[in-house]
Amino acid sequence: MAPHCNHMIRTKILSIIIAFTFSVIALQTFAQVPDNARQLITATAPSWDSHRAVLRCWERSGPNAPWQPAVANNSGWPVLLGRKGMAWGRGVFTPTRPDIPWKVENDGKAPAGIFELGRIYGEQPQLPQGSAWPYLQIGRWDAWVDNPKLREYNQHVRVNPNNVPPWFESQRMRLGDSAYKWLVEIRHNSNPIAAGYGSAIFFHVRRGPDRPSSGCTTMEVGNLERMIRWLRVDKQPYYVLLPQSEYDKLRQSWRLP
Asked: Any signal peptide, and if so, which residues (predicted)?
């Protein structure tokens, strides 16, 4: 092999190593649970490829106060993730590590990272008693768009029944499905929205103890309703989803429980 080829290969390898190193430093330095958070939901899985995780709820009294277990679930609740595990999501902080793929549409993976929570959607007239969270009762004319080619991608849309767009039937929110009794929006790829990087990510009811999702975090209905009752807007809750090894590595820099 010519000397200049060896030099080019060494240079390329070095650039990859440098990019990886700076990405890890950035991941640890700039990402953290925001100061305004007083409630935190964490879920940790055995590996990036796992579709099972343990979810815990936490509270704190201030930005420098320690996180304390909430709603008597310090032992955690079992949850299911995407059938193909996890990939980095686009949340409060968008990681750029080259060794871990990003969440994309139809990859069967749950987005990992730090996320805000959005509105809750459901068919019921109101949330479980004791809840205090923004809620929208959905019906026949509600859609959540998962087609990256549409400008409404990854958004809730309530269409005018007198002017129904041609894409509506394929994007309509499913009614009469017990797994979608409550849909708590996990704000992945929402600010800004990037076409093709994943849509319609929620907490919702699991379909069974052994049936992973396409990318959502799912759990037993009773636990989901306990979590919904616990959420409070003024406590600025966030959701952190990570493999356990990544969680342990980032615990201090991300200020995790």
From this structure: none
pLDDT tens figures, 31-49? 789 999 999 999 999 999 9
One-letter identity of residue 101:
P
DSSP-derived secondary structure letter, 180: G
DSSP-derived secondary structure letter, 55: E
Sequence spans of domains, the chain: 31-250
110-150 pLDDT, tens digit each = 999 999 999 999 999 999 999 999 999 999 999 999 999 99
Residues with Cβ within 8 Å of residue 159, at least 6 apart in sequence: 141, 143, 165, 168
DSSP string, 190-245: -SS--TTS----EEEE-SSTT--BSS-EEE-HHHHHHHHHH-BGGG--EEEEEEHH
**Interatomic CA distance for residues 155 and 127, integer angstroms:** 21
Dihedral sign computed on CA atoms, order 151, 86, 185, 116:
negative
Residues 6+ apart with CB under 8 A from 64: none
Can you read off the two tokens belonging to residue 5?
A: 């080829």
